[in-house]
Design brief:
- This protein has seven helices and 13 strands.
- By secondary structure, it is an alpha/beta fold.
- Strand 12 and strand 13 form a beta hairpin.
- The chain is globular.
- The structure holds manganese (II) ion (MN).
């Protein structure tokens, strides 16, 4: 039997009960694409994370709460949401360990933000209050009854991994975020934007495979071929 790539998936952190948990769609998307998903811990030393990076074939950073602004050199705005320090510290170290080990990395929602911060970028702490009149797109589709339908358009850079995967210059995506990439980290490039200019995807500018998306393909892969394609491509790169 052909061995499946082992994909470490980072969990959410429950604010009140203080335990890690994963929305199962993250594991289902990895499995559907041919990977073997495993939930990672949120308390591991630098050495342990390096060993995880040596053992895994790829890492998926999932959605979640806001990242502590001090980690990208900013004071917290009152519009910043709840934060999970243990997760922030673990994930930032894990991004660096994964990149050092040349592991393929995929980031979803908070995941694109974690990757950007770990590599030296910054975030808008709150799109509505910081982008003002420029924020013409609804980035939090809470009015939708389900999260597997798209709500806004993105433009995809033609010469990009994302375009290579989907073959599309324009896509419709779902949207559940009030934060977004502001300054892009060295070594990353933006490759998709919403119509109001908000960055919706970043990827590695070098040979390491890093793809971060601001939307939630793991909630759409059952309905949308493009969403599944992202996972199929990622798992193929992890082999
Ligand atoms: Mn959006």
């Amino acid at each position: 039997m052909r061995k499946k790539p082992l994909i470490g998936v980072t969990p959410q952190y429950h604010l009140k009960e203080k335990f890690p948990y994963i929305e199962n769609v993250n594991l289902e998307a990895v499995a559907e694409a041919g990977g073997l998903p495993v939930m990672l811990p949120l308390a591991a030393s630098e050495d342990d994370l390096k060993q995880f990076a040596d053992t895994l074939d790829g890492v998926l950073f999932t959605g979640g709460w806001d990242i502590m602004p001090y980690l990208y050199g900013e004071a917290m705005l009152k519009e910043c949401g709840p934060q999970t320090p243990l997760r922030d510290e673990t994930e930032l170290s894990l991004v660096r360990a994964a990149v050092a080990a040349k592991l393929p990395v995929m980031g979803i929602c908070r995941g694109i933000q974690v990757v950007n911060i770990a590599l030296g970028g910054t975030l808008f702490q709150d799109i509505p209050s910081q982008c003002g009149a420029k924020n013409t797109v609804v980035h939090d589709q809470t009015g939708y009854l389900t999260s597997d339908y798209p709500s806004h358009k993105i433009r995809v850079e033609e010469d990009s991994v994302l375009h290579g995967i989907t073959g599309k210059k324009e896509m419709l995506v779902n949207s559940f975020h009030h934060q977004a990439v502001k300054d892009i980290a060295p070594g990353l490039r933006a490759t998709a934007w919403a119509e109001d200019g908000i960055i919706e995807a970043v990827e590695s500018a070098g040979s390491n495979f890093i793809l971060g998306v601001q939307w939630h393909p793991e909630r759409m892969f059952g309905r949308e071929r493009d969403a599944l394609m992202l996972f199929l491509d990622f798992i193929e790169r992890c082999r």
